[in-house]
UniProtKB/TrEMBL annotation:
The keyword Cell membrane applies. Keywords: Cell membrane, Disulfide bond, G-protein coupled receptor, Glycoprotein, Membrane, Receptor, Transducer, Transmembrane, Transmembrane helix. It comes from Myotis myotis. The keyword Secreted does not apply. It is found in: Cell membrane. One of its GO terms (cellular component) is plasma membrane. Its main location: membrane. This is G protein-coupled receptor 132.
Length: 368
């Protein structure tokens, strides 16, 4: 959970652990993930929705995954404020509960949807003939909705937890939290890891033995399988291993709070770094869309070309306006305009010559 970061005055933590040195890391990662994750997942959700309307079953899961990551990325500014405020929650208990609920749901809905993606590709590749015509978008949409509903119900007790000034920071670990960490490691990480590893290993082996697929197609399927496993391990394994370590420490030390607090102090910086890896999952998941869908590269290339053309047209228009403004003559001053003739001095006639009267009285215009 986005806790275990620092103890501040006014926030009731059982251990006096300082995480001041890792605050910059947390703020930097949260800010970067928010800045990158919001546009990346908006684009992924839009493209995946378009692919789903064209009949892609896999795009349904990818669309749900992007929406899940988009929702979590929107809460990251609140975590930034929390870290900057010495890890005291000042936005009210319900804001903390909703923000933490979104974090938990994002973490485990992502795990479930990655399992769904792996299983769908496993069926489509390993049982290509048997599954033809049986993979339907409606089934994928129902499974995605069931994932959101199930994970949401499991974490609904978050709204009943006591407000202690912090936002879900419990130090040291007690029996309730230890059981919670064990269940999160087993059901939220170990089981999904087995499913993802098994299905993707079979996908890679089946594709390698296939003679009907081109080399480019094999490479794309293989890269997708590797990306799914790598993203899951990189983002989720370190974070859940720390949870397992803390739960095991409680089982070993029991009620020895001094030993548990020493452990919290030793793994504090590591906990922050691994939590940041779990947060990076919001940016890493769009990579799966680029690798997994058939039209993703063409769509991304098209959007890039359109953006480049629009940018070039905008720059050309700005340059044209700049040249026009430089070449246009400055506005004529009314005081020096040739519209106002300057009175001419009467020319004096030379002695002994005759000048017409009109020549003496007609004003002379100032040449422009």
């Amino acid at each position: 959970m986005p806790g275990n970061l620092t103890a501040a005055a006014g926030c009731r933590l059982g251990c006096n652990v300082s995480f001041e040195g890792s605050r910059a890391l947390a703020v930097g990662v949260y800010s970067a993930v928010c800045a990158l994750g919001l546009p990346a997942n908006c684009l992924t959700a839009a493209l995946a929705l378009r692919e789903a309307r064209r009949g892609s079953v896999l795009a349904v899961y990818l669309c749900g995954l992007a929406l899940c990551e988009l929702l979590y990325a929107g809460t990251l500014p609140l975590w930034v404020l929390y870290v900057q405020n010495q890890h005291c929650w000042t936005l009210g208990p319900w804001a903390c509960r909703v923000t933490a609920f979104v974090f938990f749901c994002n973490l485990y809905v992502s795990s479930v949807l990655l399992c769904c993606i792996s299983c769908d590709r496993f069926v489509a590749v390993v049982y290509a003939l048997e599954s033809r015509g049986r993979r339907r978008r409606r089934t994928a949409a129902l499974l995605s909705a069931a994932a959101f509903l199930l994970v949401g119900l499991v974490h609904a007790p978050v709204f009943l937890m006591e407000d202690k000034g912090t936002c879900f920071e419990r130090m040291p670990v007690d029996s309730e939290v230890a059981r919670y960490y064990y269940s999160r490691f087993a059901l939220g990480f170990a089981v999904p890891l087995c499913v993802i590893a098994f299905t993707n290993q079979r996908i890679v082996r089946t594709v390698g033995l296939s003679e009907g697929l081109s080399a480019a197609r094999k490479a794309r399927v293989r890269h997708t399988a590797i990306a799914v496993v790598a993203i899951f391990l990189t983002c989720f394994a370190p974070y859940h291993l720390v949870l397992l370590l803390k739960a095991a420490a409680f089982s070993y030390y029991g009620s020895d709070e001094a030993s548990l607090c020493r452990l919290e102090a030793r793994v504090s910086t590591v906990s922050v770094a691994f939590l940041c890896l779990a947060t990076v999952n919001s940016v890493a998941d769009p990579i799966i869309y680029v690798l997994a869908t058939d039209h993703s590269r063409r769509e991304v290339s098209r959007i890039r070309r359109e953006w480049t053309m629009w940018s070039a047209k905008t720059d050309a228009a700005k340059l044209t306006r700049l040249k026009d403004s430089e070449e246009r003559p400055p506005p004529v001053s009314l005081t020096s305009s040739c519209l106002f003739p300057r009175p001419a001095q009467p020319r004096r006639a030379q002695p002994g010559t005759w000048a017409p009267l009109g020549a003496l009285e007609r004003p002379r215009e100032e040449p422009c």
